[in-house]
Design goal:
Layout (H helix, E strand, L loop, with lengths): L9 H4 L9 E5 L14 H10 L4 E3 L5 E3 L2 E6 L5 E6 L13 H13 L12 E8 L2 E6 L6 H4 L27 E7 L3 E6 L13 E6 L3 H9 L5 E3 L6 H5 L4 E16 L10 H4 L1 H10 L2 H8 L29 H10 L5 E8 L2 H17 L1 E8 L1 H10 L4 E6 L6 H8 L13 H11 L4 H18 L2 E14 L2 E2 L15 E2 L2
Parallel strand pairs: 1-10, 1-11, 13-14, 13-15
Antiparallel strand pairs: 2-3, 4-5, 5-7, 6-7, 8-9, 9-10, 11-16, 12-15, 12-16, 17-18
Helix pairs in contact: 8-10, 13-14, 14-15
């Protein structure tokens, strides 16, 4: 629903950092549960970045940095990770962040039935507490991507005392801001945690996250002073941003992708031509012109994608997708599969950009023999539908991970936590599992190339474009840096005179 926020921050933006002004951040969607082990949305990760500390983090150049873990080391065969923890750090309930608490979090992430982090930390076989500030993490086999996983939700730390008290609705975490309240589809309010080990780096007393799905309305709220930072400005609005001296663009190339996934075995709705015949999926892929999506919707910022790995990744294969759009070949594949036309429903999160993207997909598909019904829904409802198998084809966006494993494994392995299509190929599992155990990038890329050859043939996921991360903030805000993972980190961010 389009709306213009009514609370004005103009006076606050005129104040200095010393006044501890409140900060309002407009998100494209409303997050799902505020439990990092069970959450699945990108916007939820933005909230978690202020709410929950992690064992390690990344800097703007993707280098892994200390957070709760201050030092770490591997044994000679890369199967035991020893971590030293920061002294004096506490959870929001005052409990110490010690080795026992970290072990409890990692155990929950890897064993809880509702955890979506299980595949991310599946290599962990045992966790031993050495002393209050030291733990040893033993792996069943080397895992080249584990540290990268611990820079995200798998490494986030909640108070173990909150595990049985529905942390998704009332999270008790460890970050620079603590939970105050949530009103679904309206706001999430956090307040500064004075007991945080790095509290002096955070200038704001309160941070409020406001979901505003319409990109143009988000920008209007920023320009009016009702919010201070917005994420994912629409490409069509970039010219407006450039012409307004009161706001500042901070953009960076991201690690993630926008895609659609085909329900192949997740309940009764998989029983359709797309779900049962790869030729129909291949035809749909050939019907889509990614360059048109880039030019018309992305204004040149949506680099076409045919695979999970962005060009910056060592695993990227430039040969994939070189054929581009081919309507005649798409029609021939449909005919070979015994269809003149194929009808299906495409479920997606309802915002202005995705509406434009999928209206174009609908039109392009029609030219190739597909009758596509669009089913827009609230973003949280989309996640529920995907998980429950209540879709034929569904939007699948991923914000990307530093290690290539994070962009592919949990989406296409048989037991992957985000494999909503329920696609399963034992050879793909073998290749991706082996790639996790090797540190040599050339050897890993060879395995990824083999896996991608299978995936391009069977096509459980059709990649559309890579995601840029364009943020816009009030010009009075200082110290803001755009990170390639799309997160908003508020350490050192202030409001100038």
């Amino acid at each position: 629903m389009k709306r213009l926020m009514t609370l004005t921050l103009g006076a606050m933006l005129m104040a200095s950092a010393a006044s501890a002004a409140d900060l309002r951040i407009a998100l494209q969607d409303d997050p799902d549960v505020l439990d990092p082990h069970r959450a699945r949305t990108f916007v939820g990760r933005i909230v978690f970045t202020s709410l929950c500390d992690k064992l390690v983090d990344i800097d703007a150049n993707l280098a892994i940095q200390p957070q709760i873990a201050t030092e770490w080391s591997w044994n000679d065969d890369n199967t035991v990770l020893t971590m030293s923890l920061r002294e004096g750090a506490t959870f929001h309930d005052g409990a110490p962040i010690d080795a026992e608490a970290v072990k409890a979090n990692l155990d929950r992430a890897r064993t809880d039935e509702e955890s979506l982090r299980r595949s991310e930390v599946a290599s962990i076989s045992d966790i031993a507490v050495i002393d209050a500030q030291t733990l040893e993490i033993t792996l069943s086999q080397p895992d080249a991507g584990l540290l990268s996983q611990l820079t995200d939700r798998a490494g986030m730390l909640m108070s173990p005392a909150s595990f049985d008290a529905d942390p998704g609705q009332n999270p008790v975490c460890s970050g620079p801001y603590k939970f105050v309240e949530r009103i679904q589809n309206d706001r999430i309010v956090l307040e500064k945690f004075a007991g945080h080990w790095n509290a002096d780096a955070y200038a704001f007393d309160k941070v409020t996250f406001v979901p505003i799905p319409d990109a143009t309305v988000r920008l209007a709220n920023l320009r009016s002073g009702d919010v201070d930072i917005i994420e994912r400005v629409a490409p069509s609005d970039l010219e407006t941003v450039a012409g307004d001296d009161s706001i500042t663009l901070a953009s960076v190339t991201g690690l993630g992708f926008q895609a659609i996934e085909v329900n192949m075995a997740n309940g009764d709705r998989a029983n359709n031509p797309l779900g049962t015949d790869k030729r129909v999926r291949q035809a749909l892929d050939l019907a889509i012109d990614r360059n048109v999506l880039n030019e018309v919707v992305g204004a040149g910022t949506y680099e076409p994608a045919y695979q999970a790995f962005p060009p910056a990744s060592f695993a990227y294969n430039p040969e994939i997708g070189a054929e581009g759009r081919d309507v005649e070949k798409a029609r021939a594949l449909l005919a070979e599969a015994g269809h003149e036309r194929v009808a299906f429903e495409l479920t997606f999160g309802n915002n202005t950009i995705m509406q434009q993207v999928f209206e174009l997909v609908q039109a392009m598909g029609a030219e190739a023999g597909f009758d596509i019904t669009l089913r827009p829904t609230e973003f949280a409802a989309l996640q529920s539908a995907l998980k429950a198998g209540d879709f034929e084809v569904g939007q699948s966006g991923w914000s990307g991970r530093v290690d290539p494993d994070g962009n592919i494994h949990q989406y296409v392995t048989c037991e992957g936590s985000l494999n909503d299509a329920k696609y399963c190929n034992e050879e793909v599992d073998r290749l991706l599992n082996e790639a996790r155990t090797i540190n040599d990038e050339a050897q890993r890329k060879a395995l990824y190339d083999e896996a991608q050859a299978i995936l391009r043939d069977e096509m459980p996921i059709l990649y559309l474009f890579y995601l840029p991360w364009p943020f816009v903030h009030q010009a009075a805000i200082e110290g803001f840096t755009a990170y390639p993972d799309g997160m908003i980190r508020l350490a050192g961010v202030t409001v100038g005179e």
